[in-house]
Amino acid sequence: MPYVITDECIACGSCESECPVEAISEGDDKYVIDSDKCTDCGACMEVCPVEAIVSGA
Ligand code: SF4
Ligand code: SF4
User: Residue 8 sits in a domain of what CATH number?
Assistant: First the structure.
């Protein structure tokens, strides 16, 4: 399952540059992960300061 960004996201942007497949982009009020691109590597989760990124599994 791809990773997902919850409503806890404070839109800091730290995760965007960590994604090796550029699956993360800025949404309306939080960042979002493109589930078609995400390879479940977990790199983005490591850098999120508020633990807003979770495995969708
Ligand atoms: Fe990108 Fe990996 Fe995060 Fe998926 S888990 S959005 S591939 S950094
Ligand atoms: Fe949102 Fe966390 Fe990504 Fe920052 S690192 S934009 S708080 S999901």
Answer: 3.30.70.20
